[in-house]
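Hey Z.,

So I finally got round to the manganese (II) ion thing we talked about over coffee. Here's the setup:
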Amino acid sequence: MTARKAVQGISAKEYAERRRAALDAVAPQSALLLPAGRELLRNGDTHYPFRQSSDFLYLTGFQEPDAILVLLPGRRAGETVLFCRDHDARRERYDGPRLGPEQAAEALGLDDAFPLSDIDDILPGLLEDRSQVYLPLGADEAFEAQVRGWIEDCRSRRGGPVAALELTDSGHILHELRLFKSPAELRLMREAARISVLAHERAMARAAPGVPEYVLEAEIAYAFRSEGATGPAYPSIVGSGANACIMHYVDNAAPLPEGGLVLIDAGAEYQGYAADITRTFPASGRFTPLQRQLYDLVFAAQTAAIEAVRPGATFNDPHLASQRVLIAGLIELKVLTGTVEGILADGSAMPFLVHRCSHWLGIDVHDVGEYRFGEAWRILEPGMVLTIEPGLYFPADLPETPRAFAGIGIRIEDDVLVTATGYEVLTEAAPRDGDAIEALMAQSGS
Ligand code: GLY
Ligand code: MN
Ligand code: MN
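And the result:
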């Protein structure tokens, strides 16, 4: 098998435009300090797989740990400065080459770069004429303490009492930028979606009663890596039978039950961008009439929610659309009594519905960006990407669960781009309606 050509990533020009947008959004006499991710020790000298901090990745594309980006709007000597790891011949023998401060500025399109080991000497000076410092607040105590130390140092250098350097969360600025996806980002998200669709199809084709959940997880992992994705954007959930009712089930250890459903929630990360897909299908390849009835209800709820995605709608509209369909279905099934609006208001369907219908999607699987402003839900705008993922769950130990439904969990999840006129389902190639799922599984001989 030959490797597929990598999809073109984010250009140096786009990273520069993102930094420009951040520089334009912060207060004039401010500094923005953004740390890279850190390597996290697992045990001995083994680390967890490194994943760059999302905001840092967004502004630099730089994949090394232990670096700090400094944005200094209006600074004549350069507005963008990086501190990064110096070369270390011995470490590089083990861990591979480092970019190093000599190359970093040019390679990343920044004004200047220094060794991280010099930061205590240099940074307080860079803060001298600044009145406000943006940094991620509440995310990394050690970094916050370091920043406070630099500020103290800066104050003492200024000599005597000076105006306080106000600390502001950088998230408000950067997360608004990240919420709107550029054409290049959408190219990467489409590729993450394409690979994730293949992975789901592969897992469906492999499913049969008795096959362990982890074998389907392995099929998914194989599809991700062999198509050039970094790996899963989040731990893959393969929940068969009653395991589908556990929202974050990741044991993936049980054999698929004869006559049961399988819920797979899995998405690839491709060049830093996530997909997030859930499909639910029968282990045997054929839904029972009751499973199909419940599946079709979730399918109808998801379809209604997808159709509610358009510019000008609120973030809550798809959620409400899906809940109305699910609640009407539960009334018809005699699981609930009352009116749709009454049940919507009193929350009595929530034991079966559990979670909301959507979240933003991008560099993070639960991506950043405000969902509401005060009491008001956010208005959807072109370029936003959200998931649409209604579910219906009947845990056996829930007293309200009708016995015939016990242990059934169904979720259908797709990734939806808000376009100028409506929506585009980035993951639509994954078989979604009950007939298409049965057809795919029949084809593969499940
Ligand atoms: N995979 C996490 C979620 O669906 O939100
Ligand atoms: Mn999701
Ligand atoms: Mn998901």
